Amino acid sequence: MEKYKVCPYCGKHNPPKMLECVECETDLSNISVVDSETEQKNREKETAGGAEPMPEMVRICDCGTHNPVSARKCVNCGEDISDVIPETEGAGAEKQTRYVLAALEGEYVYEVTERAVVGREAGMQEYLSSKPYVSRRHAELWAENGHLFVKNLSQTNYTFVNNQKIPEGDCEVHEGDEVGLGGNIQNGRRQEAAAYFQVRTGSCI
Predict the structure, then answer these.
(1) Other CB atoms within 10 Å distance of the CB of residue 35
(2) Are 58 and 66 a contacting pair, CB within 8 Å?
(3) How does pLDDT run across 89-119, given as a tens digit for each residue?
(4) Distance between CA atoms of 158 and 184, rounded to whole angstroms?
(5) What residue spans define the domains of the chain?
(6) How confident is the model at residue 131 (pLDDT cuts 50, 70, 90)?
(7) In the CATH hierarchy, which top-level class contains the domain 99-201?
(8) Rg (alpha carbons) of the chain, rounded to whole number
(9) What b-and-e string marks burial along 104-128, b requiring 16 or more CB atoms within 10 Å of the CB?
(10) Partners of 147 in the β-ladder
């Protein structure tokens, strides 16, 4: 009679020597080898004992999206997630989406890891020091509960999101938004003395 290991999450029958499921990559190192008769008996015991169903498994992308176990690319951002180990649904609830601001004109990338003030004499100063339209303390950035916010601190050249001056108080920005520090697009051109960034998430850069 054929022997195999039954994946506890996706139910796939795996060869006895497999240490992880060929379908969802769940750890099988502690899973007993069974045959069809033994598997049937185990199912009957679980049913009689009122065992709770196994939680659903997902692949969680760096951008925070929960993907089906069978997914090889993130349904939201297209990132390769084939090497992401599946987790139970809800296991990534405390994971925070990672946000970065990527400069439009070069290779500079700023990751928002904590609440920070940016400007020519604050965070990003190594990049912004050559941008005279940017104030010394121009804007405040922070991530909270998976969302990214920006607050303008400059009273001269202001902060813009998608070419619109942001209102007083907090303004939420999203992946793909353009943030302008000290300038916007005028007559189809960006102001060289200002700084412009695109919001991106996780490793999707």
Answers:
(1) 11
(2) yes
(3) 655 444 556 788 999 987 799 988 888 999 9
(4) 9
(5) 5-47, 55-95, 99-201
(6) very high
(7) mainly beta
(8) 25
(9) eeeeeebebeeeebbbbebbbeebb
(10) 144
